[in-house]
Write a structure and sequence with these properties.
By secondary structure, the chain is α+β, with helices and mostly antiparallel strands. The chain is 48% helix and 11% strand. The protein is built from 13 helices and four strands. A four-stranded antiparallel beta sheet has the order 1-2-3-4. The longest helix is centred in the middle third of the chain and has 20 residues. The two termini are 31 Å apart. The relative contact order is 0.10.
Length: 313
């Protein structure tokens, strides 16, 4: 884990700005804050650990009722509750940079059902809140569900098989990647970057620095920062971090991204007037080993080949 990376919270205002206000509003699952109603607030933060070291854990700080985005129409769509899920790495002092995502009951239910199907023995002890026909929006029920969701997520990260499952990773990033890829497809990179940054910080708190999901997301972030005519202001910061993380990486799947990453950084360094000697020497060394270093795919295309998403390239 790498808790030094500063955390943020992606709000729906960011997504509305990114999509011009319409794309998010057309999505009934989008938490449009202009219409939200507070329903429950955590009375206090979870107690800090008393032992030395750090503890990774989840905290639901609040929940809100959101009407459907087309609430003025007669579609009959129902209101729903959105939970603000904070990922923290606490010690005797609270995490100075907790990072949050917003999730609905249906997200938790899907995660629970998928894990129960794939790992029935490991999940049999989990007490998951059941659906209710009435009273979904009472503060008491939302508070009970929040506590159950916290325990559920804490349990997942304590069991390697559950923590490393594709279902948990999907819970953590699928919605955000879908939105970010849509924005990248529309060439609105400046709005996709904050979403990818927040998702990276979430994964970076939970998984190892050089784990596949973290490095893949980091490369996706570098690509988003560098594919515009004018690179994002933080492009160099993320590119440098990616280069550092790629030192001594042995995962063969991830190594296919290394040459495109080096080439991307080489071009970025040229744009910024930086010394490219070390990057050129590294590429030359790899070329002498018989590795193709020219004429290969761009970083974005290499990522898409490794993990296809909805964006075009």
């Amino acid at each position: 884990m790498h808790p030094a990376v500063v955390g943020h919270r992606i709000t729906v205002d960011t997504l509305n700005a990114a999509t011009g206000g319409s794309a998010v509003e057309d999505d009934p699952d989008s938490p449009v804050e202009a219409f939200e109603q507070n329903i429950w607030q955590r009375p206090s933060s979870r107690p800090l650990p008393t032992d030395d070291g750090t503890v990774l854990r989840f905290e639901i700080s609040c929940a809100r009722i959101l009407p459907p985005a087309d609430s003025n129409s007669a579609t009959g769509a129902k209101k729903y509750v959105v939970y603000d899920v904070s990922v923290r790495v606490d010690s005797k002092e609270p995490d100075p940079n907790p990072t949050s995502i917003e999730r609905r009951y249906t997200h938790f239910l899907k995660l629970y059902e998928n894990l129960k199907k794939e790992h029935p023995t490991l999940v049999q002890s989990v007490v998951f809140p059941k659906k209710v026909l009435m009273g979904n929006f009472t503060a008491e029920l939302v508070g009970e569900r929040s506590a159950a969701f916290e325990n559920f997520l804490d349990y997942i990260i304590s069991v390697p098989s559950l923590r490393d499952s594709e279902h948990f990773l999907e819970f953590l990033q699928a919605d955000e990647l879908s939105k970010a890829c849509q924005l990248l497809d529309e060439r609105r990179n400046e709005f996709a970057v904050p979403i990818l940054e927040n998702t990276f910080r979430i994964l970076n708190k939970i998984f190892l620095d050089k784990s596949k999901c973290v490095l893949l997301l980091l490369c996706r972030l570098v690509a988003a920062c560098t594919t515009s005519p004018i690179p994002h202001p933080l492009a160099e910061q993320w590119a440098e971090l990616a280069l550092r993380r790629y030192e001594h990486v042995c995962d063969t799947d991830l190594l296919v991204l290394y040459i495109p990453l080096l080439q991307t950084c080489l071009h970025l360094w040229w744009q910024r007037g930086r010394d490219r000697t070390l990057l050129e020497e590294r590429l030359d060394q790899m070329g002498k080993k018989g590795i193709k270093v020219k004429g290969g795919p761009t970083l974005a295309k290499a990522i898409h080949a490794l993990e296809p998403r909805a964006e075009t390239i």
